Amino acid sequence: MMYGPMRIGGLASGMDIDQIVSDLMRAEHMRVDKLYQQKQVMEWQKTDYRDINLKLRTLYNTSFDMKLSGSYMKYKAIGSMSDGLDFDKYFSASPGAGAVPGDHRVEVQQTARYARLESSKAITKPLMGEDLSQLELTEGKIVIAEGSQFYVTIDGVKKVVTLNSGSYDVANQADLDDLEAIIEKAINTAFGWKGDDAGNTISGIKRVQVIIEDNRLTIQPADNFNKVPIALNSIKDDEGNPIDNILSTLGFDDGAFYRPLNLHTSLKSQLSTEIPDGIISFEINGHKFEFSPSSSLQLILDKINTTADVGATARYDALTDKVILLSKETGLGAKIEIANDNGLFNALGFNIYEQDGSTIDNTKAVGQNSRIVLNDTIVEKATNDFIVSGMRFNLKEAMKAGETATFRVENDPDAAVESIKKYLELYNETIDLINGKLSEERYRKFSPLTEEQKKEMSENDIKLWEEKAKSGLLRSDPLLDGIVRNLRSAVSNPVTGLPKDMNNLSAIGITTSDWREKGKLHINEDKLRDAIVKDPETVMRLFSASGDDFSSQGVANRMYDIQDITEKAGGGEFQKYDNSILGKQIRDMDDRIADLEDRLLKTEERYWQKFTVMEQAIQYANQQSMWLASQMNMYQGG
Q: Which of 231, 263, 319, 539 could pair with 298 in a Cys bridge, judged by C-beta atoms 3.0 to 4.6 Å apart?
C-alpha cells in the first residue's frame, strides 16, 4: 500500500481536490490492479501445479519400490511348535524376497540381552532406632507392657498400633527375632493385613518390614511394597504428654520418620555415613566422572546419560528404591564396568557381596548374544532382530530344552496383490486429479478480487467468488495433458520380451472400463492372484523389467521415467529458491508492479502540483479582485 504526504486542497477554489485526485488515480490504479490479478492467477496456477506435482512425486517414489522384487516375491511362514502351539510366543519370522521356500526348523536357545547392573539393596536409609545396648533396659531386657500403643503413618494414612506384653533379652538372638516379628505383625495388622503364626499372608498385604540391623531396630517399606513415607508418633493425652514411652523403649524418637530418596537434593545429606567427604569420583567403562559433595542423584544420573561414549544409561527406580545401569546395546560386545569408585556406587549397592553362598561382583556386567539353531546350524547375533537366509527373525523368549518350532515358507500371493493394488490405486488418484484439472470449468468473468472489491463484499461472497475465479486455471494445459497421455501409455502398452499371454496388464486382470473414466484402472483380484500363483516371476517383470527402450520396460520403470512438473511450478516449501518458470514470471510481475506503483506516485504528485498551481492562481485573482473592489469603493466615495 502506498502512502503519500498529507495535503489539504480547495481552500481557494472551494473544490474537493482530494476527491478529484483520488478519482483520477482510481483510473490509473486499474493498470496496477490488473497486474495484481494476473499475479494472483499465476500463484493459484502454481499451487494447483504443486498439488499435482506432489501426487506425481508420490507415484514416482512408489514406482521405485515397485521396481524391486520384494514387492512381488512375497512369502509367509506357517507352522507351530513341536507341541502344536503357536510359536509367536518365542519368535516371529518374516520371509523376504531372498527366503528359501520349504520347511525350516528353529530352536531359540537364548535371547540377546543388555549388560545390566542393579543395586543389591534398597538405597534409602531405613527408619533406624538407637543401639539396643545403649537403651535403659531392665536386666538387659526390653519390656513391653500390655496394650502399649503408638501411631504409625504410612503414605499419609495414620493408624494406632497395639503391642502385646512381652520381655525380650537383647543378648538372645531368638528373643530379638521374636521382637522383630511382633512389631512387624502389629504394624501390618493395623493396616489390614492378616497372617498365620509363621508370618505367611492370609489376606491383605504387608506394608512394612522390621529387622534388627547393626543392633538397631529398623523399619522400612516391605520389599514388594512401593517406597512411601513412614512416620512414628506417640499417643498423647490432652496436655500433649505421651501416654506411654513405648517408642523410646524400642529406641525410636517421637516423630521419627522414613522418607523416600529425594533425587534433587544432596545425595550425601541423605546417605551421609556411606559417602565419604570430598569430591565424588568414579569411572564407568573408562570414562571418569567427578562431582561436588553436594550433588544430587538426578544430577549424577543426567551426567552419565548425556556423556556420549559411555555406552550405558543410568536411572533410579522409585518403586524398588534401586539404581539400574543398562548398556545401550545388546550382545556380548555390550558391557558395564564401574571402577575407581571412592564410595558412591558402594553406597548405592554396587559392590562385591555374598548371596546364597556365592560371591557376586555387582560392579561388572556383559551383555548376551541371541542364539538360535536354524536347520541344525547355530546362529548367534548381537540383537534379537536380525536377518538370516532371507528371513527376518525377531526373538522374544528362549524355549525350554528340547522344544523346537517348524514352519513352511511359501508364496504369499495375497501380499503381492495388496502391493499391486495400492500402487494402481495411487495411479488412479493421480490421473483423476490431473484429468479433473484438465476438464475443470473456466469462469472467465470471475477475475481475482482487488482489495477495494473485497471491502464491499461479505466473507461468504468472497469465498464463493474465489472458488469460481480459481476454477479451470489448468484447463486443457498441454504439459498436464502430455503427462496423462504418457501415464496411460505406460499402463496400456505391452511389454516386449514377455510371454504373449502375460505381456500386458489386462492379461493379469487389470483393465480400463468406460471411456469417460479417462484411463482409470480396475482390478480383478482373483485373476491377478491366479497369475501371481502361476508365474510370480513374469508378473514381477511385467512391472519391473528394465529394458533399453519404452517398449521393453516394465510398467513401474515407465512411470519412474515420466517427468514431473518441478521445472514449471517449483518444488514446494522444501525448495530453498524457486527457479521454476512460474516462479520467474511471478518475480517479474512483482518488478513490474513495483515500477508501476513508483510511476503512480509520480503521477499523483503531478496532479497535486497542477491543482496547487490552480489554487495559487485563484488566490492571486481573488486578491486582485479584492483590490479593485476597494479602489472602486474609494472612487465612488470621493
A: 263
The DSSP annotation for 534-591 comes to H-HHHHHHHHH---SSGGGS-HHHHHHTS--SHHHH--GGG-SS--SHHHHHHHHHHH
Three-state secondary structure call for residue 172: coil
State pLDDT tens for residues 353-371. Answer: 777 777 788 899 999 999 9
**Cell numbers of 354, please?**
555374598
8 Å CB contact between 396 and 112: no
Grid coordinates standing for 268? 550425601
Residue 69 buriedness (CB in 10 A; 0-12 / 13-18 / 19+): middle
Rounded distance between C-alpha atoms, residue 493 and residue 490, angstroms:
6
Max CA separation in the chain (angstroms): 150
Quote the CA–CA distance of 396 and 398 in Å, as a whole number. Answer: 7
pLDDT surpassing 70 at residue 225: yes
Is the separation of the CB atoms in 524 and 516 below 8 Å?
no
Strand partners, 105: 406
Q: Which residue has the higher pLDDT, 42 or 569?
A: 42
CA 332 from centre of chain: 30
CA 359 vs. chain centroid, Å, equals 44
Give counts: helices (H), strands (E), the chain: 15, 30
What percent of the residues of the chain are helix, what percent strand, and what percent coil, each to the nearest 5? 40, 25, 35
Q: Can you name the residues that pair with 8 across neighbouring β-strands?
A: none
- CA distances 29 to 1, 35, 244, 379, 611, Å, are 12, 10, 100, 80, 20
Q: What is the rounded distance in angstroms from the CA atom of residue 453 to the CA atom of residue 83?
A: 80
**β-bridge mates for residue 152, sequence order:** 159, 232
What is d(CA 308, CA 326) in angstroms, rounded to the nearest whole number? Answer: 14
pLDDT digits (tens, 9 = 90+) for 373-387: 999 999 999 999 999
pLDDT digit string, tens, across residues 476-489: 888 889 889 989 99
Do the Cβ atoms of 604 and 21 come closer than 8 Å? yes
| Residue 314 DSSP SS3 | strand
Query: Alpha helices, DSSP H only, in 215-276?
Result: 246-250, 267-270
DSSP assigned state of 12? T
C-alpha distances in angstroms, 424 versus 67, 215, 413, 419? 14, 80, 16, 9
Contact assessment for residue 321 and residue 123, using Cβ atoms and an 8 Å cutoff: yes
> What separation in angstroms does the CA of 403 have from each of 87, 95, 321, 536?
10, 22, 38, 35
Burial zone of 128 (CB within 10 Å; 0-12 exposed, 13-18 middle, 19+ buried): middle
| Contact criterion met (CB below 8 Å) for 379 and 371 | yes
pTM: 0.64
Rounded to the nearest 5°, which phi and psi values hold at 43? -65, -40
> Which residue from 451, 452, 444 is spatially nearest to 470, judged by alpha carbons?
444
